[in-house]
Each structure stands twice: as structure tokens, then as C-alpha cells.
Amino acid sequence: MSTAPQLHLLARAVIENDGHVLLAQAQGHAHTFLPGGHVEPGEGLRTCLARELAEEMGLHVEIGAYLGVIEQGWQDGSWGRHHELNHLFAAASPGLTRLQAVMSREPHLTFAWVPVSELEDRALMPSPVRLWLAGKERGGNFFASTLEQG
User: Fold this and answer.
1) Cβ contacts of residue 19 below 8 Å, gap of 6+?
2) CB–CB of 45/89 below 8 Å?
3) Which of 9, 17, 104, 123 has a beta carbon 3.0–4.6 Å from 98's, enabling a disulfide?
4) 133 Rama class: left (phi>0) / alpha (psi -120 to 50) / beta
């Protein structure tokens, strides 16, 4: 008998500066991801994103336009199946540029400014966000899925 996948609702920030994007990486994992995190029950997406960025980096971040959503599914060994909805928002922090190191307030995370041209090398997940950031899919609200083809 198959068990239902764990559902994850996330808000993620696209923080760009001078051809670079701010990425997060969890210790012990090869892939990177956009900063942000899980929405708590009763919490709005924008509120979640502001909270997560303050917790992770100690930054006051201005949450901008809604950019789109990427759904992703994966199998995690004994943890089972996962289904994730990543809502993407433009975001900026006054005075923050790619020339500044972003320090993590959470010991399991690190942050780095990465040139858009190097996103493939950084194993940015979910994978459709790489195309969007490279400009191939920009314009209007973006939707992509690793669960559906086409």
C-alpha cells in the first residue's frame, strides 16, 4: 500500500544583484536553493518569507512581486515521498549587494552570491528555477513542475 506524500508549502526569495543571485545551502547537501522556508499554519506567504529571512540571515527584507510557483516531487529513502510547492517572490534588502557576505544565523545553513551563469554548477533546486533565473522563462507569472511533462 502506498502512503500519501508529505506536502510542503514554501515561500522563497529571489534576491538578485548585478547578475548574481543569493543562494542557500544546507550542510551535508550538494544542492542549493533559494532562501526562504516552510509556511506555518495560518501564516501568509509574504509573512512567512519575511520571517524566514529574518530568522536565517537577520535581514529586513522588502518582499516584492509574486513571480510564480514551482512544484516538485521526490523520494527520500525511508522518509517517503514528498510533494513541494515553492512560491517565488522578488525580494531586496536595503544596501545589500553581492559584494557583501551574508552570514547565517542558523548553523546548518550557508549563503553565497552566485553568478546566474553558474547556477547549473551549483545544483540549484528545484531545477526549473534555473531556467527562470537565466531569463529563458521570465515574463508573467511562472509555473513549472517536475511532476508533469509539458
Assistant:
1) 115, 116, 117
2) yes
3) 17
4) alpha
- Note whether 105 and 56 are within 8 A (CB): yes
How far apart CA 98 and CA 57 sit, in angstroms, is 15
Cell readout for 36 is 526562504
Distance CA 72, CA 84 (A): 5
Tens of pLDDT along the chain (150 residues) come to 457 778 899 999 999 999 999 999 999 999 999 999 999 999 999 999 999 999 999 998 999 999 999 998 877 776 688 889 999 999 999 888 898 889 899 999 999 999 998 988 888 999 888 888 887 556 667 777 877 754
Domain boundary assignment for the chain: 6-145
